[in-house]
Design a protein that fits this description.
single chain, elongated
Length: 192
Amino acid sequence: MTNKLKNPNRRNVEARQAGIKKCLMSRRSFLLTSGTATATIMVSMNHAGAETQMPATVASYPRKKIATLSSLKVDEPIEFEYPDGGDYASAMLVKMGTEGGGGIGPGKDVVAFNYFCTHQGGDLTGTYKGETKSLGACPLHLSTYDLTRHGILISGQAYQSLPQVLLELDGDDIYAVGIFGLIFGRYDNLQG
């Protein structure tokens, strides 16, 4: 009996004689064969694409002065448009009084975010809550975002973080210099 179990070919012969259709490839053989095939294809694709590599497209965002650090008051948002004047470009800058991801200033508490929900573009203007350092709830499906953690979703239907406007401090001047995330309704953050 133990000899039958150790010899897979003998098991297949006995199974065919009994009229049972048996798989001719073991799980281990399948995994080894498929792994080898995948590696071969990946290597050949890598070599084939070597001659046709395309340069990466890098978005060049405008550098726009939006406020001065000395003029900001804790939990009083300032509205601005960035990166352009196109659809869904409204944004807010706020000094939270609490350190935030991507924050600038001495307390790393000055952050900026796009005003439109990533789920269906609901306008979040006027929904900043200083006590929770959040933006929302969205008027469409109640998505709410945590501004201390790069605009990550707290609750609601959205599945992406709120686009964060990247900031730069030059003396007392605050500049918007880019966007981390994709603005709702656009395939590219820059109107062209």
